[in-house]
Amino acid sequence: MRLGQKNLLYSMVLAGVMMLFLIGYFICMLPSLYVDHMAEQNLKSAYEQHMAYMKNGSYQDVGVKNTTACFSLEIPMEGNLILVTGKAFSAEIKVRDQRLLELLDRCREKLENSGLSAGKTEDTGRDGRGTVIAGGEAPGFGLTEEMEELGEILKASVEKDSALPVEIRLLYRGRAEEDFFNESLRIHSYSGGPVIFEFGIEDIYNRYTNYVAVEETENSMVFSVLPIVAPNVNEIRPVVLGSLPMLGAVILLLVLLFSRMYSGGIVGPILRLVRHTGEMEHAQDSGVKRLSEEWPDRKDEVRELADTLDDFYAQIRESYRILEEKNQELEEENRRQEVFLRASSHQLKTPVAAALLLVEGMINDIGRYRDTKVYLPKVKEQLLSMRSMVEDILYLNHCGQDGRLLQVDVGRLLEERLRSCQVELTEKGISAEFCGQKDLVVCTDETMIVQILDNLLSNAVKYTPREGSVRILPEACNREGKPGIRIENSGVTIPGELLPHVFEPFVSGSHEKNAASDSHGLGLYIASYYAKKLGIALRVENGDNCVVASVVFPQET
Length: 557
Fold this sequence. Notes:
It is a single chain. By secondary structure, the protein is of the alpha+beta class. It is 49% helix and 18% strand. It has eleven helices and 15 strands. The strands form four sheets. Strands 10-12-13-15-14 form a five-stranded mixed β-sheet, covered by helices on one side. The chain has a four-stranded antiparallel β-sheet with strand order 1-2-3-4. The relative contact order is 0.05.
């Protein structure tokens, strides 16, 4: 999944969780909070209403929550008068019935003994509210029997159709309509059904609505009345405002939780990439494991970045490997240059000094050097040795250039080089034998392979004793499965202490008296250097009373 899709999914999940939380809050928590808040507000309104009456003795200048239903009943501790006061009226009730008077006295006695009279209420808060035992009554306060008796008295009065047991005198009647405003009337009609009249009016606390449904039948008119007190919208606002800290805390917690989970899915892989780059930085030659192996199912931009880093790291390591190879080649080139300087400065000193000594002796007619016919050839011999060394050095300098790979007939080159050695072979009585298949064609550089073959054949002829033999064996497919050549010269072996160093520069040996008097030790070094340039495996080892030089080409014909 791409990061954009993950962001969208994260946003959708977070929005869904927030919606579920808000729905759950409004369904499960807000109604109960509203009910508790309204119970608290109603209790507070009852307290304020009572305290306002106790202070003023009336409700004329006091706002009450329900104008038509709020009133106070004042029962004096003596006498038969009861005072009833409301927002829109005030009346005096005189008890005339003896049974009611007795009932009223008993109620006064119980109220006085109950501890609820003025000055005996335990103050437990700012509102002066005392503790009430849930589900029970206050100690000493029980008017159940008196209420039942009052009901019987009123029932009896109604059944006898006699005068009321009390006398009511209206003291004050206010204009309640002043407290109401926004009167309205709406009519709702239903096809084939009743017509409903909606009468509405408001005060500062509530909106009062009376629904009157009217329907005519064949024999009568039916009226149905439903009074409703609609709550004020301001009543729920404090509940919502009071819930804001809790809502904010829960929403913040949810956002932090989901953000932590989401950041773990995004930041975690990025931190792994950082550690991976550190592993790359300190990795050895073996390298590090690709992150794609750890994230086989990941298909987002982080995976693409990991693959890019791994590919870049692989390219760097490959470039570093090529650079190391180039450095090795440069080291070899520096070594070759060192050989060149050493040969120029040191190895040429000996033949030059010998030639100068011979020429000086002949010029000054000193002793035996007067015989120029004998010593001039020796001077020529020293000069030829210097020329050979210079040629080898020049060839060594030339080998730093890249060769051109062509199809070369190695068998033909061997025959040509062998013919160039016929004079020396005849002088020493050495037999040369070309065995096996002569047609051997390989892809190589002709100039370099000629130098290799020439050095190997020259050494074989030079170090083979008189009456010895030289065998050349081209192999189209040797034991390694690659084309190669074997050159064996019998009657001689390389000393064991010299054998590991035969490819080093200026290392030479004499296996027969004066056999290598003109050797300067660059032949096999040059041959081995050319072989490395061409990827040829070159070996020189001792055989059964012979020296075996083998050349294995890197590819088949």
